[in-house]
Design a protein that fits this description.
Distance between the termini of chain B: 36 Å
Structural class of chain A: mainly alpha
Helix content of chain A: over 70%
Radius of gyration of chain B: 18 Å
Order of helices and strands of chain A: HHHHHHEEHHHHHHH
Largest sheet of chain A: 2 strands, antiparallel
Number of helices of chain B: 9
Largest interface: A-B, 33 and 40 residues
Number of strands of chain B: 12
Structural class of chain B: alpha/beta
Shape of chain A: flat
Oligomer: heterodimer
Radius of gyration of chain A: 31 Å
Shape of chain B: globular
């Protein structure tokens, strides 16, 4: 008491000030209502944000330098649609390459063989250290180092197959290799995480019923790892879909390249960039939705813990079906 | 050596660095016999069990199941590791039930039980399913064939795990603390399935803390501590009148 005596008078004063407003309460307690405080700060921030947005939209819409008619005119232009097709094909191919190679790299990194472990680590290290744009340009200029690409039996002449590197290394091929081989390193890390996320007991149980290492990997470990791998790989896919725009640098006419080709002749640079952006937004939105649905599907066997209505409905219907089946059997 | 012996272990040793996990283990299990291994944690009983189907390797010693080394081929005084394919084939004849069930969560109960026969034995789908339904009926889960493991209680999951092991018609069943991860009220249902299995003549090696089960079902109890077999004998003898001080103090603690 004595040591705190300096603080006490203040507290008591505050207590008395509020207390003195209170008269003995005689009304119906259930009619007492709480009145929320006005949160002034929130209103100020919200208003400021809305005002800034309004200014931005006004500056864009009212801008005499942007021709919105041009945007609408070119959204479904044949060249833009072809460019979009190229972008999609490039994304699918490079991700397919990255996923296949990524799984192999992940298995190598987790294997007991020290050489494959180190090799895979070096691959991941280098591919993640060099910018993909640089890698893509290197592939495009491969002819500077190897003028011909040949397949043959070592030590015998002539080679079975031989191509001129410049003919093979089109912008498209350079883009698939440059982006796909680098992306494989990222996918490898995701897959490795997924494989490590599967309980060791699963492998032991599979071995205990006599499954081989490969059977265990394919039938037990990988299906469970997918559940952990798909969400981040989905993100990678969406991210790569946009990164393919770098391929315009080596002269590939994907979505950005196509819009730049058009703007090079009509000088509507910003309008065509908006056209490209619109398609990037549309496709990214669709991919995100597909990813969401795919994750739902992969939740099979784990639905108990998910609160998603679709998963629950499916589980519910399955139970109903199995119960009916058993009733029939009886 | 007794021709009746299904499992013969002699002079088995294993160490992790300086730690001797198995220190000169010798043990024989006859066909149709139920052996319960008791002992404090860290006594090496789980490691021993896992050596029997080669989930663990050992450093030296003899370990034969049905007259064959598991995981190794003997040439003179040397044991050569077998190919992974051979090991897999050998393992498929020894059923194993784990403490944490280890059911495959992405497969239904029926698919869990069918997987081994389908993939390892190349049994036809229809035959595998019929057999799986029969086994699930035997462990009292006929009504749960299309459920996923996560939708079952621990006791039900463990019974599925037993059915999964039985689906490969094993000549020997290993149980690694099959009830330790279960809530007390679920232990009985698993033990009763195991009891029924023992009555049907299955050769079983059970690592457990269930003294009552050991007393009622085991033909023999083996007590292990610090990587050694301290003593073994019929349940009545070991549980009621242990000769060794360590067995006595263990039973006093657990009982």
């Amino acid at each position: 008491m004595t040591s705190n005596s300096k603080n006490i008078p203040l507290d008591e004063a505050a207590f008395k000030a509020t207390n003195s407003e209170i008269m003995p309460f005689l009304g119906n307690p259930s009619e007492l209502e709480v009145v929320k405080r006005l949160k002034l700060g929130r209103w100020v921030v919200a208003f400021a944000l809305l005002w800034l947005s309004f200014l931005l939209v006004q500056a864009l819409i009212g801008n005499p330098n942007i021709d919105y008619g041009i945007i609408g005119q070119y959204v479904f232009d044949r060249r833009i649609i072809l460019g979009l097709g190229n972008t999609l094909m490039l994304t699918v191919l490079l991700m397919a390459l990255a996923i296949m190679l990524g799984i192999i790299l992940a298995v190598m990194r987790l294997s007991k063989n020290p050489v494959s472990k180190v090799m895979a680590s070096i691959y991941v290290w280098i591919m993640r250290s060099v910018p993909v744009l640089v890698q893509m340009i290197i592939w495009f200029n491969l002819a500077l180092v190897f003028d011909r690409i040949s397949i043959g039996i070592p030590g015998t002449e002539p080679a079975l197959f031989s191509w001129d590197t410049n003919e093979v290394m089109t912008p498209f091929v350079a883009a698939v290799l440059g982006l796909g081989l680098a992306e494989a390193a990222y996918v490898a890390e995701i897959v490795r995480g997924g494989l490590m996320g599967v309980d060791r007991g699963q492998t032991e149980a599979a071995h205990a019923i006599g499954m081989s290492a490969w059977q265990t990997f394919r039938r037990v470990v990988m299906p469970q790892a997918w559940r952990l791998i798909v969400p981040p790989v989905g993100n990678e896919f969406i991210s790569m879909f946009k990164t393919t725009s770098l391929a315009s640098v080596v002269g590939m006419t994907e979505l950005l390249g196509a819009s730049q080709t058009i703007s090079a002749s009509n000088y509507r640079i910003l309008e065509l960039l908006v056209v490209a952006s619109l398609w990037y937004i549309i496709c990214t939105t669709i991919f995100s939705l597909l990813q969401f649905l795919l994750e739902r599907r992969l939740g099979k066997g784990y639905n108990q813990h998910s609160s998603g209505w679709l998963g629950q409905a499916l589980t519910f219907l399955k139970h109903r079906a199995s119960i009916r089946f058993q009733e029939k059997a009886l | 050596m007794n021709s009746d012996a299904l499992v013969t272990i002699a002079g088995l040793r294993k160490s992790y660095g300086p730690l001797q996990v198995l220190n000169d283990i010798s043990l024989e299990v006859r066909r149709g016999e139920v052996v319960c291994i008791l002992g404090p944690s860290g006594s090496g009983k789980s490691t021993l069990l896992r050596c029997i189907n080669h989930l663990e390797t050992f450093d030296s010693g003899l370990l034969e199941v049905d007259g064959q080394f598991v995981g190794y081929r003997r040439e003179g005084m040397r044991l050569h590791e077998r190919s992974r394919k051979d090991v897999a084939r050998q393992r498929s004849r020894v059923g194993m039930v784990f403490q944490r069930f280890n059911l495959f969560p992405h497969l239904t109960v029926l698919e869990n039980v069918c997987l081994g026969p389908l993939i390892v034995r190349k049994v036809k789908q229809k035959a595998a399913e019929d057999r799986a339904r029969e086994l699930l009926d035997r462990v009292g889960l006929a009504g749960r064939v299309d459920f996923y493991p996560a939708q079952l209680s621990g006791g039900q999951q463990q019974r599925v795990a037993i059915a999964r092991a039985l689906a490969l018609d094993p000549m020997l069943m290993l149980f690694d603390e099959p009830t330790s991860a279960l809530d007390t009220e679920l232990v009985a249902e698993v033990l009763s399935v195991m009891r029924e299995l023992a009555d049907s003549g299955m050769t079983m090696i059970v690592v457990t803390h269930e003294i009552k089960f050991a007393r009622d079902v085991a033909d023999r109890i083996v007590f292990m501590d610090e990587g050694k077999v301290i003593e073994q004998g019929p349940p009545a003898e070991i549980l009621s009148a242990p000769k060794e001080e360590r067995t006595r103090s263990f039973l006093a603690h657990i009982g």
